[in-house]
Amino acid sequence: MGRHGTSLMLTAVAVFCASCAEQQASVERDLQTSAPRVTLITLDPGHFHAALVQKGMYPQIDPTVYVYAPEGNELASHLKLIESYNGRAENPTRWQEKVYTGPDFADKAFSEKKGSVLVLAGDNQKKTGYIKAGVEAGLNIFSDKPMCINAAGYELLKEAFQTARQNNVLLYDIMTERYEITTVLQKELAHAPELFGELKIGSPDDPAIVKESVHHFFKIVSGSPLKRPPWFFDTDRQGEGIVDVTTHLVDLILWEAFPEQPIAVAEVSVLAGKRWPTVLTAEQFCRSTQTSVFSPSLKSRLNAEGALPCYANGQIDFTVRGIHARAKVEWNYQAPEGAGDTHYSIMKGTRANLVIRQGKEENFRPELYVEPAEGLAADNLAGAVFRATLNLQRTWPGVLGHKEGDRWRIIIPDRYRIGHEAHFAQVTEKYLRFLQEGKLPDWEIANMLTKYYITTTALDMAKSD
């Protein structure tokens, strides 16, 4: 090839590369203009869930985050977790935390409004007030559960939703358990009539839907022992178990049984609420909080043996559209070797029960089973299981049904088992889509209000027993 031919080729290549670079720049500009630029404000982050929102990066979120909090261990722990995400070898984040610690930190957050989304995860006694002040200031709210812990808080939360509507901002709680794969598939199969039949009505003694979870005060998070703030054991501040973790369980019952349907308060009836304590020794409290003694505010609650009865356990029996349901939570100090927090769930249909178990037989990993209803055998469900799982494969390739004795186990590829911490990114991405659309679905708002009505009403009933 001659010199002129070479020059023409080089010119063509240069033009092509320039065109590619221009196209790439155009794509990047389009992405920047099509996606809203979100800036986070983190207020008083007393719970590690505030940091988990930032375990990954998001194209729509500015890397600079404004943190308003008092000086102390809780802020230090939060910043340490963010630093660990920034410094990890694989997929490091690049958050830049701008921190304000003055005594007027909360007022400053609301008046300066350096971001558009207020992230809340901490002292639940303060949280509802923060939510109300945030929406009044015109901030969107992305809140850890629970958003309220008693009847007075529920009334304030209702006002906050009204203000959010008036100010055109989005108030949303972080329901990570909707993204756990066995729960997702249980929900899908509950709406496969050939397999499941119809959801039973149940009774107070034999509910059609039961969800139970067991949690632990001492656990490992992001590779290190979790340091709980002392107020976590003060149920006046953290909330009793019946209004805390049960928020997830009640949410799942509404979401699975009546997907994307608004449930009004008038459509539910709270039948009973129960509560009981987990008793913690001084050594257990100090190990979990990394302190040396019980907090002064807790000393008046110690029993004769010097231990703390913590009302972290609760059960709610209720009906929704006539269907009997139960939500139950228990807290132990520490999980057995190889175990962690566990979940049990059953949805009872006229043809089959859909059961999630996470016990020793499952190696403490949640597994979903299809068990025949009374009068049927596993073989009677073979065709329905095949067709239902074939339908699931459109979204989750590799999901299969495997017969084990007189039941079927749903085989779930490991790639769908991403873990609790990763679910925070999924909820955040969903919230970012809502922000881009400029609204929450009506059913989400209705069901948040109904959910907190159920939990706070159950607490009042439990305390009156």
Explain what you see.
The protein is an alpha/beta fold and 465 residues long. The protein has 2 domains: 40-173, 3-Layer(aba) Sandwich (Rossmann fold); 177-424, Dihydrodipicolinate Reductase, domain 2 (2-Layer Sandwich). Helices cover 38% and strands 23% of the residues. The protein is built from 14 helices and 17 strands. The protein has helices spanning 3-34, 49-52, 73-87, 105-112, 124-136, 151-166, 181-189, 193-196, 235-238, 246-257, 282-289, 382-392, 420-437, 442-464, and strands at 40-43, 64-68, 96-100, 117-120, 140-143, 171-173, 209-218, 220-221, 224-225, 268-280, 308-320, 323-334, 342-348, 352-357, 367-372, 400-404, 407-411. It has a 9-stranded mixed β-sheet with strand order 10-11-12-7-13-14-15-17-16. It has a 6-stranded parallel β-sheet with strand order 3-2-1-4-5-6. Strands 8-9 form a two-stranded antiparallel ribbon. β4, α5 (124-136) and β5 form a beta-alpha-beta unit.
Q: Mind summarizing the main beta sheet? A: 9 strands, mixed
> What fraction strand?
15-25%
Strand order of the largest sheet: 10-11-12-7-13-14-15-17-16
Number of helices: 14
Distance between the termini: 95 Å
Q: Kindly report the CATH topology of the largest domain.
A: Dihydrodipicolinate Reductase, domain 2
Mean pLDDT: 92
**Rg over C-alpha atoms, rounded to the nearest angstrom:** 25 Å
Provide the low-confidence segments as ranges: 1-21, 23-34
CATH architecture of the largest domain: 2-Layer Sandwich
